[in-house]
Amino acid sequence: MKVMATLAALWRNPLGRTGAIVLFLWLFFAVFAYGFSADSSPWANSMNLSESAKPMQHRGADGVMHWLGTDRYGRDMTGRLLLGSRVSLSVGFIAVGIAMLVGIPIGAWAGFYGGPVDSALSVLIQVFWSIPSLLMVMALSFVLGKGFWQVFVAVGLTSWVEVARLVRGQVKAWKPSEFVQAAQVLGYSNRRILWKHIMPQTLGAPHCACCEPVRCRNSAGVGLVFSGPRSPATYAIMGRNDSRSLPLSAHRSGAPCTDSWARFGELGACLSDSWNGLARRARRARSEVG
User: Fold this and answer.
1) Domain enclosing residue 225, as ranges
2) In Å, how far are 104, 213, 219 from 110, measured between CA atoms?
3) 1, 131, 160, 193: least surrounded by Cβ within 10 Å?
4) Tally of domains within the chain
């Protein structure tokens, strides 16, 4: 019910509603990319030098419309942009999913048990926090090799620190609560108190804040295209082969990337406002009952 109330409050916010609609459209175009592409070859990579470097809204000799034009090899920019967005968005979502799977348990254990457990896990968090994320991603990519899943794992393993720090603080804030003390008096195990009573109260913050890591991991994936090990599909993200000779090619694909990052920021801010508003109303209702 709290999730549905949060989504309803998000939808009532014009900024959040706009961000959600635009992101849904980007996801729709990414999933059904081949339906909007003039090139049905894998990753829209077929070359036609007779159609090299054509402007936007160019109709080829075969009658096919190239809405964003073609690159210097005659490849359709629309198809490459949409198919490249699959890689970019996948890096963001899957990497943040991996980060939450790793960061939530570590942060919960550190915040709940405290003492040596908290000290050891905090040292681990600080060590990962001190290493620049992009350098860590590049190093892990070189170790794990090329490929989609290697990039996902590399980016995800550098993103869990933010989640762990946030969850740790939330758990430490809720641990002195009266319902936790009542559960301890009733003889419930620490595992049940942590995962059944405390964690449902704390998961709103990391879920709301996950939009910012999605945006950052998305940009990290794009950064790997320029500076890290690459597979052929990743060239489609930002027009890597064309950015020197045809700057407009990078602008055509860079503008959608920038727009999606901005929408993720809007969505995260609106989710946080919606969740905090619901939490304030809940606390006010409890105080009035008391």
Assistant:
1) 2-289
2) 10, 21, 30
3) 1
4) 1
